[in-house]
Automatic annotation (TrEMBL):
<protein>
    <recommendedName>
        <fullName>Small-conductance mechanosensitive channel</fullName>
    </recommendedName>
</protein>
<comment type="similarity">
    <text>Belongs to the MscS (TC 1.A.23) family.</text>
</comment>
<dbReference type="InterPro" id="IPR011014">
    <property type="entry name" value="MscS_channel_TM-2"/>
</dbReference>
<keyword id="KW-0407">Ion channel</keyword>
<dbReference type="InterPro" id="IPR011066">
    <property type="entry name" value="MscS_channel_C_sf"/>
</dbReference>
<keyword id="KW-0812">Transmembrane</keyword>
<feature type="domain" description="Mechanosensitive ion channel MscS C-terminal">
    <location>
        <begin position="182"/>
        <end position="267"/>
    </location>
</feature>
<keyword id="KW-1003">Cell membrane</keyword>
<keyword id="KW-0406">Ion transport</keyword>
<feature type="transmembrane region" description="Helical">
    <location>
        <begin position="90"/>
        <end position="122"/>
    </location>
</feature>
<keyword id="KW-0472">Membrane</keyword>
<keyword id="KW-0997">Cell inner membrane</keyword>
<feature type="transmembrane region" description="Helical">
    <location>
        <begin position="20"/>
        <end position="41"/>
    </location>
</feature>
<keyword id="KW-0813">Transport</keyword>
<comment type="function">
    <text>Mechanosensitive channel that participates in the regulation of osmotic pressure changes within the cell, opening in response to stretch forces in the membrane lipid bilayer, without the need for other proteins. Contributes to normal resistance to hypoosmotic shock. Forms an ion channel of 1.0 nanosiemens conductance with a slight preference for anions.</text>
</comment>
<dbReference type="InterPro" id="IPR023408">
    <property type="entry name" value="MscS_beta-dom_sf"/>
</dbReference>
<dbReference type="InterPro" id="IPR010920">
    <property type="entry name" value="LSM_dom_sf"/>
</dbReference>
Length: 289
């Protein structure tokens, strides 16, 4: 019976202490409700103010999130002090400092991605809508969040990439500029005049609508003596999006092929000579007849 009495006494004391704390708990709950309202109002005010600036939407979302976190941390500290009068803001901050070390080790990758996301959001070189390539992943930046970024590949697949990967590794921003350079190789036969072929190819490329001809010149250089042809390196500039490159390549290849055919200039293909050590059966039959 004695253990039951001790247990009953402990339950009674805990109930009495809880009832004594009910006023403080009620005030703390009210503080949390007010914190929720202030956080919502703060997000709305910051969002309205930032919408009038030239900041990118991703940065606006970051500032709104940080504002909300700051309000919630302040409100939770006040509620904790109300429920536990022995606590002070200094002791809470000290506890958070000690706890943050342990949490930092436990969630190292999470915080790494978080900090990397903040740095990426401040980058001017990579924006939502840009086409990028990093570690074999290539596509359009669909969304940049605090911890991760969403890359929409050209085949429609969505790849969720940790921000630390985009921060630590080289990132190729394909659409950083309006135009990109494109290069193809075009071969002509050895009996074709090189200068004549260069002029025909240049004129064909100049007639393509997808080729940028302002500040970016079209370049056609004889590159090498290949096995069955003299190869030209044909270079021009077009739009920077992947679909622009594919469309321009299609138009240029078609135009160059048509121009060389119209000029009577051969685009060679490999010739193969076969040598047989023994007479062919067909040849033996013809000799017998």
């Amino acid at each position: 019976m004695e253990p039951i009495r001790i247990m009953w006494r402990q339950v009674t004391e805990m109930t009495r202490d809880t009832i004594a704390l009910l006023p403080q708990i009620g005030v703390a709950v009210l503080v949390l409700i007010l914190t929720w309202a202030l956080a919502a109002a703060g997000r709305a005010l910051i969002g309205r103010a930032l919408s009038r600036t030239r900041l990118r939407q991703s940065l606006q979302d970051l500032f709104i999130l940080l504002t909300s976190i700051a309000i919630w941390v302040f409100g939770i500290m006040i509620a904790a002090v109300i429920v536990f009068p022995g606590l002070t803001p200094a002791s809470i901050l000290a506890g958070l400092g000690i706890g943050s070390v342990a949490i930092g080790f436990a969630f190292k990758d999470v915080f790494e991605n978080f900090l990397a996301g903040i740095i990426i959001l401040f980058r001017r070189e990579m924006r939502m809508g840009d086409h990028i390539e990093c570690e074999g992943i290539e596509g359009k930046v669909a969304h940049i969040a605090i911890r991760e970024s969403h890359i929409r590949q050209t085949d429609g697949q969505l790849v969720i990439v940790p921000n630390a990967m985009l921060f630590k590794n080289p990132v190729y921003v394909r659409t950083d500029q309006k135009h990109r350079r494109v290069t193809i190789i075009c071969g002509i036969a050895y009996d074709v005049d090189v200068d004549e072929a260069r002029g025909v190819i240049t004129k064909a490329v100049e007639g393509c609508e997808t080729v940028e001809q302002g500040d970016h010149p079209i370049q056609v250089f004889a590159q090498e003596f290949a096995d069955s042809s003299i190869n030209f390196e044909v270079t021009w500039w077009t739009g920077s999006a992947p679909v622009d490159l594919r469309r321009s390549k299609d138009e240029v290849v078609t135009a160059v092929k048509r121009a060389l055919d119209d000029a009577g200039l051969e685009i060679p293909f490999p010739y193969r000579t076969l040598t047989f050590k023994e007479p062919l059966p067909l040849q033996q039959a013809n000799e017998e007849e």
